[in-house]
Specification:
- The chain contains 23 helices and 17 strands.
- It has helices spanning about 1-10, 20-30, 45-55, 65-80, 90-105, 120-125, 150-155, 155-160, 180-190, 215-225, 240-250, 265-275, 310-315, 335-345, 350-370, 375-380, 395-400, 405-420, 425-435, 440-445, 460-470, 490-495, 510-515, and strands at about 35, 60, 85, 110, 130-135, 170-175, 195, 205-210, 230-235, 255-260, 280-285, 295-300, 325-330, 405, 475, 485-490, 505.
- The strands form 4 sheets. Strands 3-4-2-5-6-1-7 form a 7-stranded parallel sheet, with helices on both faces.
- The protein starts with a helix and ends in a 6-residue tail after the last helix.
- Bound molecules: adenosine-5'-diphosphate.
Length: about 525
């Protein structure tokens, strides 16, 4: 381990390891396959770079993104470490030249896209040399339960099995749910005890949900306060990227834009302008960002709802990699849910996979409705229960002084759902509580229920918001169903029996009633 410490100081100029790094390095250098789960910015690269330097031979780093490879190789080269990348951007002369150098054992690190493993020349070459390790960066891409599954990543597995000189393997990711974690371990042959999970908390990030005002106005006001700071604004469609970008330019901001509809050259230019601080803001779809190591991003704003917590945390996590306080803001509008549902529906996924995606989307929506600490909500989603305290700085924690007891109202809602036989969604339940003369209410004779019109002082919109809140707090569940049917959970029974209280932020129903945005 002294050797690792020496490399850390001599090559990289850092005095000490970040949490988890040392353990991963220790496993890998003693030939134990390992999985490192660390938050974005946690320092995953060193987990394979230090063993790669400590061990003899060449390290192969499998990486899904071409832009990432070049940056990593440049960084290593600037430290005097022989490194290269092999991917589809090379000319055939460059490819031949690099393969020759590789076979001569000249490189300490070779970055390769997963598709490379389908090339016999590449495989024959790596078979013929001394390998130090194989690293799988962004290892969640190997699992079909991951949010960014790449079949080419998974098809490496049988090829690996045939390598006579298979070295130790290290997998790295920032997002691994239990299923993904299990898949990575199974496919790459990693023992349970060699998984290092540092927890997901990012103490320097403050999470915020913004509801009830115009998104456009919010962004303009927010930027006015910090004109010189660097930030990312994620949008959900290319069209929205263009619109927001245009708006910012018209107000005189130096903003770049990035989406998959632009030429590769334009994308590269936009990315570089942002990384080199020529443009302070980048407006982008989720095509932007994987592997981007820009340390001074002070805020990440999601202009629309992301499809799941995994993507959200990864994208939001691009803020504050330098450890300085940074904001992660999500602008919520109920209409955005429809777009995400549409995207799932028209995708080519198998039915059971679609059901899973709906469930993940529901967890994302719940995040927007919860009144609990947002950081804690995310950590619990990833089964990380290590933090004892709430973060104290997310929009919910900041609001927690202004709470009122709505246990009685919750009981009314719950008993209404019970009387409706737990077979309907939030919309119809709200109508019954409101006392609506809607045809469907009459058809089902819900106007005969004792709960009919019981909460008529609220609007239907307020009632639906309150129901969504109860779902977010896990007092109601919507099951795995596409058309969310409300069911009472164990916690609901406690509320009905008066053993559990329901606290909400003051004025909550009224303020979120305006949650429908105008663009
Ligand atoms: P990620 O986990 O997102 O891949 P990186 O490996 O890119 O993170 O590291 C993020 C930043 O943290 C980089 O700028 C890296 O140089 C820095 N870093 C990594 N390890 C250490 C350390 N032990 N001490 C100080 N800085 C570190």
């Amino acid at each position: 381990m002294e050797k690792a410490q020496h490399i850390l100081e001599e090559y990289f100029g850092f005095p000490s390891f970040r949490p988890g790094q040392q353990a991963v390095i220790e496993y890998v250098t003693s030939q134990k396959n390992a999985l490192a789960i660390m938050p974005t910015g946690g320092g995953k690269s060193l987990c394979y770079q230090i063993p790669g330097l400590a061990l003899e031979g060449t390290a192969i780093v499998v990486s899904p993104l071409i832009s990432l490879m070049k940056d990593q190789v440049d960084a290593l080269s600037s430290l005097g470490i022989p490194a290269t990348y092999i991917n589809s951007t090379l000319s055939s002369e460059e490819f031949q030249e690099r393969m020759q150098q590789l076979r001569a054992g000249r490189y300490k690190f070779v970055y390769a896209a997963p598709e490379r493993f389908e090339s016999p020349t590449f495989i024959e070459s790596i078979k013929s040399i001394n390998l130090s390790l194989i690293a799988f960066d962004e290892a969640h891409c190997i699992s079909q339960w991951g949010h960014d599954f790449r079949p080419s990543y998974r098809s490496i597995v049988p090829t690996l099995a045939k390598l006579p000189n298979l070295p130790v393997i290290v997998a790295l990711t920032a997002t691994a749910t239990d299923e993904v974690n299990y898949d990575i371990r199974r496919l790459l042959n990693i023992e349970d005890e060699h998984v290092i999970n540092t927890g997901f908390a990012r103490d320097n990030l403050s999470f915020h949900i913004v509801k009830g005002s115009s998104k456009r106005d919010f962004v303009l006001d927010y930027l006015k306060e910090r004109p010189a700071e660097s930030g990312i604004i994620y949008t959900s469609t290319r069209k929205q990227t263009d619109t927001v970008h245009q708006l910012l330019e018209s107000k005189g901001y130096a903003a770049a834009k990035y989406h998959a509809g632009l030429s590769e050259q334009d994308r590269k230019q936009a990315q570089n302008a942002f990384i080199q601080d020529e443009k302070t803001i980048i407006v982008a779809t989720n095509a932007f960002g994987m592997g981007i190591d820009k340390s001074n991003v002070r805020y990440v704003i999601h202009y629309a709802l992301p499809m799941n917590i995994e993507s959200y945390y990864q994208e939001a996590g691009r803020a504050g990699r330098d450890g300085e306080p940074s904001d992660c803001i999500l602008l919520f509008s109920g209409q955005d849910i429809q777009l995400q549902k549409f995207l799932i529906e028209q995708s080519l996924m198998e039915e059971d996979k679609k059901t899973k995606e709906y469930k993940k989307l529901q967890a994302m929506v719940n995040y927007c409705h919860t009144h609990s600490c947002l950081q804690t909500y995310i950590l619990h989603y990833f089964n990380d229960y290590s933090a004892v305290d709430d973060c104290g700085k997310c929009s919910n924690c900041l609001n927690s002084d202004n709470r009122e007891d709505m246990t009685r109202e919750a009981q009314m809602v719950l008993s209404c759902i019970k009387r409706m036989d737990e077979r309907f969604g939030a919309g119809l339940t709200a109508k019954v509580l409101k006392g609506s003369r809607d045809k469907k209410v009459k058809d089902f004779q819900f106007d005969q229920l004792s709960t009919y019109g019981l909460m008529s002082q609220y609007t239907e919109k307020e009632l639906t918001n309150f129901i969504h809140f109860l779902v977010a707090e896990n007092i109601l569940s919507t099951g795995d169903d596409r058309y969310p049917i409300l069911k009472l959970t164990k916690q609901a029974k406690e509320v009905l029996q008066g053993r559990k209280q329901v606290w909400v932020q003051t004025g909550f129903a009224r303020s979120t009633a305006a949650a429908d945005y105008h663009e």
